[in-house]
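subagent[fold] <- orchestrator: predict structure for attached chain, return tokens only, no commentary.
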Amino acid sequence: MAEKTSQTLANHVRLDPLFHLFLGPVSMITFIWMIVKLVRYPDLDHAALVVLALAGVVAVFKIRLYALKVQDRVIRLEERLRMTALLPEALHTRVSELTESQIVALRFASDTELSGLVESTLANNWKSGDIKKAIQVWRPDYFRV
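subagent[fold] -> orchestrator:
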């Protein structure tokens, strides 16, 4: 799936319009609206609507978080396989020392710079942002949730 612009550190965060511009805002607005209705007309029915609207907000965000967690697990598996193929044996044994967020960030590193970035990450305990900033040749990931 090719996108129009090449992916970089500056533009790699993905906006999902249906979630970020519709589901999230609509669920939050509905929740706030139900609270306003409860304050204006306090009764059991309006209290139940507040609880239902809150359940909707929680469901929308939990569903999104579940998808992101599954994506991170798949990325972790893919990157461990990639590292097995590309890293020297000395680094193979240390891959388990990398955190999930470090592995997820390393997916953007090109094959040629992966070894150096893994070494630097392990030596300096880099956070995902540090890893992404250190990448010279960006390997795009267009299949994100």
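orchestrator: received. Logging for downstream: The chain has a mean pLDDT of 92. Residues 44-86 form the longest helix (43 residues).
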